[in-house]
Amino acid sequence: MRLTDCHNFHDFRKMAQRRLPGPIFNYIDGAADDEVTYRRNTASFERCDLVPNVLRGVEDVDLSANVMGQKLALPVYCSPTALQRLFHHRGERAVAAAAGKFGTLFGVSSLGTVSLEEARGLCGGGPQCYQFYFHKDRGLNRAMLERARAAGIEVMMLTVDSITGGNRERDKRTGFSIPFKLTLAGMLQFARKPAWGIDYVTHEAFKLPQLDEHVDMGGGAMSISRYFTEMLDPSMNWDDVAEMVKLWSGRFCLKGIMSVADAKRAADIGCSGIVLSNHGGRQLDGSRSAFDQLAEIVDAVGDRIDVLMDGGVQRGTHVLKALSLGAKAVGLGRYYLFPLAAAGQAGVERALELMRIEIERGMKLMGCTSIDQLSRANLRFR
Predict the structure, then answer these.
(1) Residue 280 burial by CB count (10 A; 0-12/13-18/19+): exposed, middle or buried?
(2) Residue 218: what pLDDT?
(3) More confident residue, 166 or 218
(4) Are 373 and 90 in contact, with CB atoms under 8 Å apart?
(5) How buried is residue 175: exposed, middle or buried, by Cβ count under 10 Å (0-12/13-18/19+)?
(6) What is the CATH number of the domain that holds 9?
(7) What angle do CA 134, 311, 32 make, to 5 degrees?
(8) What angle do CA 118, 330, 66 make, to 5 degrees?
(9) Which one of 88, 89, 135, 279 is the catalytic residue?
(10) Spatial CA neighbour of 371 closest among 341, 328, 340, 337
(11) Would you call 10 a catalytic residue per the annotation?
(12) 221 confidence band (pLDDT: 50, 70, 90)
């Protein structure tokens, strides 16, 4: 299968599955418990229909969006995700460069495998945010903020739905963990994909530059699972976050908001934006989809803060539906991770280009020439 044979999310997924050892593919593809929320995230878009207008003169279409003071050339962005060099040896370098080429936001994760300083440079000065977790060590939290400030990061994004790890049973079956502690079945799956192993051992050593003193990829300091259970602070509350917003004194975003009450509280403490997200179905199985929560949260706080969303987005029409409900932009996760795994930067660029074409085509067919022309008048729910 060639990259040119990939025309949608499902094609990239198949190509990634052919390249990756089973445990790594399932780490990307899997979710919590019975994966109900994972499936619901995409299904929620299918219960909503678009109502197009015609004869509106749509020769020129503007796809740009303004998000937390940053102008994006596209109304989609690459959500921060962990461990990207595990999927392809260029990892965040490939994604940052692709996002920069398309003029859209790239999120660096605190569990990223490239330093936020290097990733900042790869974006060519384009929009970028830094995603981090709240640690028991308050000094570490402050140090992460200062490091991001020194690197020129403009938007801090605190993930608030991961004070403990989700129950990801696919990983348990294969023994997938960082460092690797594979079951026999998991090791056999690696043996069937030797090309991945060759890439892994012939490129620079795997590391987590943002947390290299605390989490070790080779079995030294701490595993990823222990990081979530031992270093993150389950006592984190609104007062803690308000203090961090004040300490940062810039654009601050909370990722993982799902209720109106929490959205209002985020606005009250001075956040610039929120991302409606259930972590791709990887945390609390059975939770609502972000798309299903979008309208009521936009109605509650959309005039005070920027509301973004992610989860289950596989098509340009999904993006149009979210924008019509009032989202400022839409985050992509697996949508770019599978192309990254399949073909590195070229894969991510092809995926973003296909998304750009789908959104532009959809805008023209909807009779809209700019994002602000999309509204709930364009939608009907079954």
Answers:
(1) buried
(2) 53
(3) 166
(4) no
(5) middle
(6) 3.20.20.70
(7) 70
(8) 75
(9) 279
(10) 328
(11) no
(12) very low
- Encode pLDDT of 115-139 as tens digits: 989 988 887 778 889 999 999 888 8
Please give the distance of CA 324 from its chain centroid, rounded to a whole number: 21
Enter the tokens of residue 108: 């660096």
Query: For the segment 235-246, what is each residue's pLDDT rounded down to a tens digit?
Result: 999 999 999 999
Q: Are strands 273-276 and 65-67 parallel, antiparallel or unpaired?
A: unpaired
Query: What distances in angstroms separate CA 373 from CA 104, 123, 312, 326, one per listed residue?
Result: 20, 29, 24, 11
Is the overall model pTM greater than 0.85, yes or no? yes
One-letter-per-residue 3-state SS of the chain: CCHHHCCCHHHHHHHHHHHCCHHHHHHHHCCCCCCHHHHHHHHHHHCEEECCCCCCCCCCCECCEEECCEEECCCEEECCCCCHHHCCCCHHHHHHHHHHHCCCCEEEECCCCCCHHHHHHHCCCCCEEEEECCECCHHHHHHHHHHHHHHCCCEEEEECCCCCCCCCHHHHHHCCCCCCCCCHHHHHHHHCCHHHHHHHHHCCCCCCCCCCCCCCCCCCCCCHHHHHHHHECCCCCHHHHHHHHHHHCCEEEEEEECCHHHHHHHHHCCCCEEEECCHHHCCCCCCCCHHHHHHHHHHHHCCCCEEEEECCCCCHHHHHHHHHCCCCCEEECHHHHHHHHHHHHHHHHHHHHHHHHHHHHHHHHHCCCEHHHCCHHHEEEC
Percent of the chain scored above 90 by pLDDT? 73
Which amino acid is present at 191?
A
Following CA atoms 251, 252, 257, 259 in sequence, which dihedral angle do they give, to the nearest 10 degrees? -70
- Upper half-sphere CA count for residue 37 (Cβ side, 13 Å): 24
What is the domain extent for residue 136?
Answer: 3-381
Provide the number of structural domains found in the chain: 1
- Report whether pLDDT(220) > 50: no
- From CA 376, how far away is CA 322, in angstroms rounded? 10
Note the pLDDT tens digit of each residue in 32-82: 999 999 999 999 999 999 999 999 999 999 999 999 999 999 999 999 999
